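Q: Give me the 3D complex with heme C.
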Amino acid sequence: MRRTSTAWPHISLCTLIGLGALAGCGAEGDLSDSQSDDFNRRGNDERNRQPRNPAALPGTDMTAFEAGLEAFAEAETIEDGLGPTFNENGCGTCHTSPVVGGSGDQIERRFGRMQDGAFYAFDLDEENQGGTLRQLFSNERYRMGNASCRIPVETEPPTANVRNVGRRTQPLFGLGLVDALPDSFFDALAAAQPTAIRGIAQRVRVTLPDPRDPSQSVGSLRVGRFGWKGLVPTLLVFSGDAYDNEMGITTQSCFRGTSVLEFAMENHPNNVTAPNGCNGGDLAPSQPPGVAEVPEWTDDAVGPCTGGRTEIQDDLLLFTTFMERLAPPAREQPRDRRAAQRIERGEQVFSGIGCAGCHVTSTFRTPANPYNGVPGNFAFRPYSDFLVHDMGSLGDGIGQTGDPAAQTRLMRTQPLWGARFNPFYLHDGRARDIQSAILEHAGQGAASRSSFRSLSRDDQAALIEFVRSL
Ligand code: HEC
Ligand code: HEC
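A: Here is the predicted complex, encoded as structure tokens.
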């Protein structure tokens, strides 16, 4: 929690004053230039070593990036508003591997009920448990004045029949580039896919619009490209969502005179509010009374939204700035010529058996003037279409209330860049290595899994080496 006021940092010196030819402004270079040249500039010995700090995209205002990194890495306390329930105390406590902003070994838990062909997310009046996420920790016991307060840990209700579903921490490198892509880009990817494996560019509501993008407003639609289920449209929305749902830190922002309360309400264990006199479940000061736009227990609020005011809560700005400026992971350099040849062979096999249908190998490019200030015309290769696919038995069975079973099986193609840094694989971390991850593909991924099975051992190994090199 930071009390200073922050604004969107200026985009970059390069973009603003057109110094495209200066060192560090090479946004238009080819892939080897543009993908985190910080990694590439190291000497031979160091080349494949893990960097200690995350690299930033070219043209990044490093002061703003470091302020974002600091906020992202900060551990919050009950006095800052952590809880009443939470999964961890900082973004950077989960996103750790191999550096802050990466994947991690935390696995969250969700539950729900499938009944008469429809999913129930335990979020309506009847049996309302506050949704499908079961936070793993609570503020337990604390003192508030004379009151001794107790917040229990959330439990799964006995009437749930989809239980203990895992969600692994995802890496965040390069996602600012993905955020910059227009919806039409994803529509075109879907249209180009063979019908048997065609993904869906899933439109979701933008609950907290990004003031830098004139096409976003409260409730407008955008392709959901983030999260295992592809249900989150922007890094800004993810910031508000994760601060609230992972950490229990609630925020209020103003957008063109509207108070955005999507992330302003605390999650209570099994939807049972904290006892009276317990400050709403944590020890952050309550909001001053008499401001209709701000609920009493919102932890960090910007205040009244009168006069058409637009202001995004400052922590959310900081998290977003940090994430959107994270450079993509650099490819691993092969040890020798033989390794290079095997990786090349692996790439051919990868495409040959249909992996590239979803983990597309084509080069993406940001628009000329991205709304979020990442470099324009920037080339990158995430090895994902960011679409959701019916993954059959690999689907996690979690949906939103009313969803049919097929909807609950939809999973977003996980990007493969930097996959070698993940402690384990797939949405619930069930796979310890890349081979096991491939063998779990089902539904729209079943055909390529079968083709993988029938490859020679050599070709299987080459394919895995290729994936490990990304
Ligand atoms: C308890 C561990 C944990 C904490 C704390 C946490 N995350 Fe995450 N993060 C995850 C998990 C798990 C996922 C996958 C979520 C899902 O799809 O259900 C994720 C996914 C994401 C994604 C989507 C990545 C992608 O590939 O689409 C973003 C963005 C993100 N987190 C940002 C944040 C920010 C910002 C914070 C702090 C406010 C934060 N996270 C705190 C565990 C965590
Ligand atoms: C129909 C689309 C589709 C095809 C085809 C496909 N994948 Fe995937 N892949 C996905 C989706 C979706 C996920 C995430 C699934 C999950 O965890 O629930 C995924 C996850 C993965 C992962 C785990 C990544 C991580 O970080 O957890 C690896 C590795 C992978 N795929 C490799 C491959 C390979 C190799 C092939 C070809 C044999 C392939 N995939 C074919 C859609 C596809």
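A quick observation: The chain has two domains: 13-324, 337-468.
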